[in-house]
Amino acid sequence: MGYESEQVVSGQCETLIQAPVPAQVIDKGLPTAGLLAQVMVAKYADHQPLYRQSGIFERSGLAIPPSTLGQWVGQTGVALDPLVEAQKDILLARKVLHADETPVAMLDPGAGKTKRAFVWSYCTTVYDAIQAVSMTLPRAAPASMPRTFSVTGRASSSATTTQGTSNS
Question: Based on the domain organization, do 18 and 74 belong to the same domain?
Fold first, then answer.
């Protein structure tokens, strides 16, 4: 789970010389990029909840609580934000972009119940050379989301009006 760097002791001045440690996704954190990738893939591609991943790690001799895994997921998500923005820019450069809103139940903190929210997905067509999908859970009103997505993605207003929207 850690990184080992080569250490050399100079015989003349008795100084320890160590190779620089590569940059980490989480500064001063223990998890390597490979472990964070494993946690993210297991959570989002394999649908493994964090408590179950924690149990799997424990059977391998690593005591990593689900709360720690949750912090890692959040920090990794923040680190991936520039990649998400780059993908959004690529999507908005396409001539045809499909958009869809899907209603979901979202917990409303403090209210003790759920409220209706919408997940918006944007994707290229099946005929496009680039196959890409971007999803967002906005805080704005559902009707304003296509315009908000395109404005924050630095697209022109004409690109916004040519986007197809279908309600589910």
Answer: yes
